[in-house]
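Work Package 4 report. The design task specified in the project plan requires that, given a folded chain encoded as structure tokens, an amino acid be chosen for each position. We show below one input record used in the internal validation round.
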């Protein structure tokens, strides 16, 4: 379900970005999209954080070696995403 909502947020991000460029929208449609559908980026970040918590939460709560390995994996992933971004 979280992936479904993340997909909807991504579609809305694409919609908002397309509205900025001249793709034949009327001025009213352009203004409406620009003003009323800008929830996408914040929603996507929130849902991504919820997904990470759902996937890795039990391993982090386990403690011990499992917790350390999970933290190391998340830090490596964050560093990779930072470098790629």
């Amino acid at each position: 379900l979280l992936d479904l909502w993340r997909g909807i947020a991504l579609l809305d991000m694409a919609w908002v970005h397309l509205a900025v460029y001249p793709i034949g929208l009327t001025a009213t449609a352009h203004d409406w999209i620009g003003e009323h559908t800008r929830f996408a980026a914040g929603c996507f970040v929130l849902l991504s954080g919820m997904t990470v918590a759902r996937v890795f939460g039990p391993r982090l709560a386990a403690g011990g070696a499992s917790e350390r390995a999970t933290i190391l994996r998340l830090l490596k992933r964050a560093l990779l995403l930072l470098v790629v971004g």
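The chain has four helices and no strands. Validation will be extended to a larger panel in the next phase.
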